[in-house]
Design a protein that fits this description.
Number of domains: 2
Order of helices and strands: HEEHEEH
GO molecular function: zinc ion binding
Organism: Penicillium argentinense
Mean pLDDT: 78
Shape: globular
Pfam family, one: zf_C2H2_17_1st
Low-confidence stretches: none
Protein name: C2H2-type domain-containing protein
InterPro entries: Znf_C2H2_17_1st, Znf_C2H2_sf, Znf_C2H2_type
Bound molecules: zinc ion
Amino acid sequence: MDPDEIMQLIVPRLNHSGPFKCQWKDCQYSGHFSRKAVLLRHIEAMHINPGAYDCPEPNCFRSFNRKDNLMAHSRNVHRDGGQVSAS
Ligand SMILES: [Zn+2]
Ligand SMILES: [Zn+2]
């Protein structure tokens, strides 16, 4: 699903800057998110694709459903900054 579509479903008419709350129907999470991207990552990881692999970079909110996709992303996008723990 396209992230923008997800946002339209989950956060209708949300035009202020936060904090954001997850509106997913069965969400057990009662906390708030300071940024839309963080909320979106929560939605993807917890509701759309549980068991996903989140990118560990602090300013990156991508998540992947397969570890090799995350590894490829990490190599392509974060190759300057990320720690490499290949052995
Ligand atoms: Zn939620
Ligand atoms: Zn990343």
